[in-house]
């Protein structure tokens, strides 16, 4: 297949690009800069300049390809409404470009906010519906359009050497504050998956998953936030302590919302459907090995 990947030079996107190329597929990657184009082309893919607001580039990439993997997102924590607006417009454009076909369309989402009080299941429908909801309601839009829509829901930690996601933010905060902290009693939990395992899941989904599939990129279902903070403290040689919930915003900034919440999911149905068996190191192992040690 020729696969159009948005966010192809990103943390997950570059791993997906490598995985697809290694399996014999072609990749056309959307990139925002010359530097990103160079990185994508060095992997063996073709680069298409554009971004989520460049609807013409999105349309051209999707029209040319046999499949779409949409990973890019503005992730503007200071203006989430703009991120949601851009995501909705981009997904509508991509869907229109492949309308009437059965080309696979993989849409990225997260586990956050899906359910409360338990691990999310693949059978749980996203509560985000409509253009003003989280991510512009893009998961439901893709799954309900009528083509071969597939959702991949990522664990809050997609980890490995070079990660610049949530755990990297926590490591940066710990270095800045001189302490690796957790909120309250630290019993909130996150799921995690190694970057390479997440990339392999996306390839398997493109090749095998039927329309309407929700895949959970989850290797470890529950790691407590206290365990994450303790592992970072050990790796960074910093003390570890609790921050009261009322002070979490001051200490963690935008990360407080996430680190004071449980974001977990089961991947049992995903594994059974696709034969996906995660094999990468666990999150705490990656932290101990120095993946977040910085300079």
UniProtKB/TrEMBL annotation:
InterPro entries according to UniProt: Epimerase_deHydtase (IPR001509), NAD(P)-bd_dom_sf (IPR036291), NAD(P)-dependent_oxidoreduct (IPR051783)
GO CC annotation, single: cytoplasm
Short name of any one Pfam family annotated for the protein: Epimerase
Domain NAD-dependent epimerase/dehydratase: 3-99
Domain of life: Bacteria
Gene Ontology molecular function terms on file: aldehyde dehydrogenase (NAD+) activity
Protein name, as recorded: Oxidoreductase
Organism: Marmoricola endophyticus
Lineage: Bacteria, Bacillati, Actinomycetota, Actinomycetes, Propionibacteriales
